[in-house]
């Protein structure tokens, strides 16, 4: 095949197509086109070998063999059968076929792969006289089929097993969450490490784990081909493999190694066992000459930046150019979400120890790192690290682009808080003003759990609730920052930064430890954080789940409604419908209800109400929890003719919008003659005033707490009295 131009395709992690295209152009490939999931290019056989051996970002290099019709299984089989497979698969070679994609006729990739394999085998049986064997683990020739609409592209996998398997990582010896080598290399290329290395620069990874970023950086700096340690290639079993030519490409790669490269790679980790693994990997990769390892906290990076390279130039700035990279723990596989502020503080301290001419690149799913660094990234690559959606965030470390706000907390403590968005200073000022006024009010009223900020600035559309701990949590203070729905027009990256800035400022302004600020992004899942805090409200004890985006168990905006429940509950049978918060039931019990029943479909609420009733001294059979869909329960009760003295009906907005007055009527049918229902209908437009035989009192204003006044338009509440004359 020497001399012929081959059509090739290199695959890579999504997000790195442009980086790979740049790399392939640099390797001299032709007609390079970044596409989704990889890069199309052309080259001769030697180029294909060089792409396999030298690409640091590609996970696989494929030869495009054919494009065939694939309208259905038969058409695909016939087209593949007619292809000259004997030119690619030697006699007695084993094969494997993998398929991706689907169309209307070919929905199952396994079936597609089977059809192609059958056609290839049938063709080879006709030509060679025997069918080739299939070996899915270590085939001599591996074929890939990609289905797009009515066509299939057939590829021969030239590189073999994924190119991230460089060969310097020993199987079974690794730290907990190593980065894929191809991803690490992509990140380094995107951050401009090659250019910095060529100027004799420094690479630092202060959270290096098994050392992947450091080793990839050292391989680049010493011009080592990343594939030199691999012992198997996909093309070795291919009929057109040219062993001499491959030998020349290999020799060229050995000759290109530049062990005299004037660079330094510094890699540290707080965990000595990670450094032990990194040391072995560095040795196997052959880059000990340029990599220096150390055990320390990233926050103390400054003390490791010593030596001639860090000497000062005429302007007082260090002479070496440099890049810091890190793949910090994500709070998922390693550490927990609560540790993230500490990780970010360590990263920020490390970055602040670096010369301002350096740059920084991080791979993390945590967008709040910008706030900790006090910088907005100059570029972001959306990618996946394994199954986790992450970002490569790249920053310049110049002094001018660093942002921070000076704030004085309500307790009088001065802070200089790093933020990523310029306008966050305005948020800090507004938060302080609003919180000061509301907290003064709260102190007078004896309220200890309150809303202190409610989208007072349109760009910072979030609410901030503060909860003071009581009893066993006396002295703890937690703040919940909950983002409101993001309109489609909002720049999500800026919105992420504003939320993270807000959390940092809430901690500083409200004198709350950073790890006690719970961030609830608007698309957070409903599971909550499981962080309960014992609090008091009007002398009663509650244990809200503070990170739950939907229902904490103590919705603060319902405080006034709960007080109304207590005022009306004396001596009667109380029903708590829909209200996921068990709190209203506790108020009813405290108000002297003879019995209470709470109907809710969720088990965790059952547990909470039991605990809360008990904590307030209400035990026994008089208080029941029914774990059932409230609609079904209502229907059964109505059929059985059961009536109650006080019903709290606080349906979810969506249900109320769907069922409207029909729902209100069904709930009313449970109310005894002369008795009442409290209807909470949020911002729903329903109007119960037209109901027959019902006296309606609008108590919206009376039940709206002062700290929720901004929500007046979204708080509708009525007392409906059953005045039916049943004769
Ligand atoms: C996700 S791992 C890095 C994995 C690495 N990129 C690799 O490929 O193996 C994060 C590393 O950060 C380290 N780490 C966490 N907090 C640290 C701190 N404050 N200072 C230094 N290292 C830290 C952990 O010990 C862990 O090895």
Q: Can you offer a commentary on this structure?
A:
With 727 residues, the chain is of the alpha/beta class. 31% of the residues lie in helices and 24% in strands. It folds into four domains: 6-157, VC0802-like (2-Layer Sandwich), CATH 3.30.2130; 181-223 and 258-396, Rossmann fold (3-Layer(aba) Sandwich); 410-520, Transcription Regulator spoIIAA (2-Layer Sandwich), CATH 3.30.750; 555-722, Rossmann fold. The strands form six sheets. A seven-stranded mixed β-sheet has the order 2-3-1-4-7-6-5. Helix 2 packs across helix 8. The longest helix is centred in the middle third of the chain and has 22 residues, at 424-445. The mean pLDDT is 92. Bound molecules: S-adenosylmethionine. S-adenosylmethionine (SAM) is lined by residues 175, 177-179, 206-210, 212-213, 269-271, 274, 297-299, 327-329, 334, 343, 346.
């Amino acid at each position: 095949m020497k001399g012929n131009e081959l059509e090739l395709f290199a695959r890579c992690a999504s997000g790195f197509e442009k980086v790979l295209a740049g790399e392939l152009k640099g390797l001299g490939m032709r007609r390079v086109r970044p596409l989704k999931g990889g890069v199309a290019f052309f080259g001769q056989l030697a180029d294909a070998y060089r792409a396999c051996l030298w690409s640091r970002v590609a996970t696989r290099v494929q030869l495009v063999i054919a494009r065939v019709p694939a309208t259905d299984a038969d058409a695909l089989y016939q087209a593949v059968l007619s292809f000259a497979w004997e030119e690619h698969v030697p006699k007695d070679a084993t094969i494997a076929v993998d398929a991706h994609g689907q169309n209307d006729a070919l929905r199952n990739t396994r079936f597609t792969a089977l059809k192609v394999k059958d056609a290839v085998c049938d063709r080879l049986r006709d030509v060679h006289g025997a069918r080739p064997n299939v070996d899915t683990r270590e085939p001599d020739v591996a074929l890939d089929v990609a289905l797009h609409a009515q066509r299939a592209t057939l590829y021969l996998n030239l590189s073999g097993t994924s190119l991230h398997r460089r060969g310097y990582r020993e199987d079974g010896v690794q730290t907990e969450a190593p980065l894929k080598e191809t991803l690490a290399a992509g990140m380094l290329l995107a951050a401009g490490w090659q250019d910095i290395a060529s100027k004799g620069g420094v690479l630092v990874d202060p959270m290096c784990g098994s050392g992947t970023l450091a080793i990839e950086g050292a391989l680049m700096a010493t011009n080592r081909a990343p594939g030199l340690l691999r012992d198997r290639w996909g093309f070795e079993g291919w009929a057109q493999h040219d062993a001499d030519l491959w030998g020349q490409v290999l020799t060229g790669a050995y000759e290109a190694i530049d062990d005299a490269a004037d660079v330094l790679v510094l890699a540290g980790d707080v965990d000595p066992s990670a450094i032990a693994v990194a040391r072995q990997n560095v040795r196997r990769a052959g880059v000990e000459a340029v990599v220096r390892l150390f055990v320390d906290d990233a926050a103390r990076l400054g003390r490791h930046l010593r030596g001639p390279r860090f000497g000062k130039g005429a302007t007082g700035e260090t002479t070496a150019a440099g890049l810091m990279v890190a793949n910090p723990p994500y709070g998922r596989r390693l550490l927990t979400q609560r540790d993230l502020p500490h990780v970010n503080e360590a990263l920020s301290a490390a970055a602040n120890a670096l010369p301002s001419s350096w740059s920084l690149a991080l791979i993390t799913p945590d967008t709040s790192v910008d706030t900790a660094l006090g910088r907005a990234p100059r570029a972001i690559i959306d990618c996946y690290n394994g199954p986790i959606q992450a970002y490569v965030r790249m920053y310049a470390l110049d002094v001018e682009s660093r942002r921070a706000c000076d704030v004085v907390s309500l307790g009088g403590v001065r802070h200089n808080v790093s933020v990523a968005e310029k306008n966050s200073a305005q948020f800090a000022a507004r938060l302080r003003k609003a919180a000061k006024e509301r907290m003064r009010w709260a102190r007078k009223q004896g309220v200890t759990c309150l809303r202190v900020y409610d989208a007072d600035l349109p760009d910072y559309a979030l609410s901030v609730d503060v909860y003071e701990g009581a009893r066993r949590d006396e002295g703890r203070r937690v703040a919940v920052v909950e983002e409101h729905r993001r309109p489609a027009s909002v720049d999500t990256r800026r919105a992420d930064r504003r939320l993270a800035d807000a959390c940092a400022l809430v901690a500083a302004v409200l004198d709350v430890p950073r790890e006690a600020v719970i961030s609830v992004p608007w698309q957070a899942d409903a599971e909550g954080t499981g962080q309960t805090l014992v609090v008091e409200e009007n002398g009663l004890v509650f244990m809200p789940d503070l990170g739950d985006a939907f229902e904490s168990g103590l919705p603060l905006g319902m405080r006034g409604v709960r007080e109304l429940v207590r005022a009306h509950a004396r001596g009667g049978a109380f029903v708590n419908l829909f209200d996921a918060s068990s709190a209203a039931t506790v108020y009813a019990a405290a108000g002297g209800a003879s019995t209470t029943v709470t109907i809710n479909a969720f088990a965790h609420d059952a547990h909470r109400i039991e605990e809360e009733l008990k904590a307030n001294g209400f035990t026994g059979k008089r208080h029941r929890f029914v774990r059932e869909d409230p609609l079904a329960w209502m229907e059964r009760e109505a059929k059985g003719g059961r009536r109650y003295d006080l019903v709290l009906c606080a349906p979810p907005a969506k249900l109320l919008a769907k069922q409207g007055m029909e729902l209100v009527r069904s709930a009313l049918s449970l109310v005894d003659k002369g008795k009442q229902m409290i209807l909470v209908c949020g911002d729903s437009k329903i109007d119960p005033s037209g109901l027959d035989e019902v006296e309606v009192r609008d108590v919206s204003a009376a039940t709206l707490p002062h700290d929720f006044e901004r929500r007046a338009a979204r708080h509708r509440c009525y007392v409906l009295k059953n005045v039916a004359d049943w004769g």
